[in-house]
Every structure is written in structure tokens, then in C-alpha cells.
């Protein structure tokens, strides 16, 4: 009787448990979601690294300096069109 109870308990949890056969699909969906998130974060990191590289080589490009100054000072010229995100 004890063997049947143990077999039933472990059998049930191997099928329906958190890491059982039924949860494999949910784990695969989570893996795909996290892989996509990793790709987005990697792209973002590469973008930021390129911007830092433009600023850190000792000379600052005039366009980037102008863009950052306008952003931080919140200014624009009269003949410019400003788009807000």
C-alpha cells in the first residue's frame, strides 16, 4: 500500500508538477520570451555602446553635442520642428 501511495504521489507530480511534463510547454514559452527580451536588450546595449564610443574618443562630434545640449536645456531654434515621443 505504501509503495502504491509513493508511486502515485511521484507519478502525479512528474506529470502535473512545476517541472513536470505538462509544464514543459509553459517553460518553452518562457524561454522564447526571455530570448526575445535578451535580443532587445543586446541591441539596446550595442546602441548605447556606439553612443559612448562617439563621446569617449577624446573628441565629441558636433551633431551629438548639439543634440544632447538641446535635450538637456530644452531649447530649439525658431525654424525647427520638434517631435515629442
Describe the 3D structure.
The protein has about 80 residues and is an all-alpha fold. The model has no long low-confidence stretch (mean pLDDT about 85). The chain is about 70% helix and about 0% strand.
Compact overview of the structure:
Helices cover 71% and strands 0% of the residues. The protein is mainly α and 85 residues long.
Give the tags:
85 residues, mainly alpha
Helix tally equals: 3
Query: What is the H/E order?
Result: HHH
Task: Please summarize the sheet with the most strands.
Answer: none
Counted beta strands? 0
Task: Report the mean per-residue pLDDT as an integer.
Answer: 83
* SS strand fraction: under 5%
- Please report the distance between the alpha carbons of the first and last residues: 67 Å
What does the radius of gyration come to? 27 Å
Uncertain segments: none
* Secondary-structure class: mainly alpha
Name the assembly state.
Answer: single chain
Instruction: Tell me the overall shape.
Output: rod-shaped
**Percent of residues in helical segments?**
over 70%
Provide the fold topology.
Layout: H1 2-16, H2 24-56, H3 62-73
Amino acid at each position: 500500500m505504501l509503495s502504491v501511495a509513493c508511486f502515485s504521489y511521484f507519478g502525479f507530480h512528474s506529470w502535473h508538477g512545476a517541472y513536470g511534463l505538462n509544464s514543459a510547454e509553459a517553460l518553452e514559452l518562457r524561454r522564447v520570451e526571455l530570448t526575445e527580451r535578451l535580443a532587445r536588450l543586446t541591441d539596446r546595449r550595442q546602441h548605447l555602446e556606439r553612443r559612448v564610443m562617439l563621446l569617449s574618443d577624446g573628441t565629441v562630434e558636433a551633431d551629438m553635442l548639439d543634440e544632447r545640449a538641446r535635450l538637456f536645456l530644452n531649447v530649439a531654434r525658431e525654424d525647427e520642428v520638434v517631435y515629442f515621443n
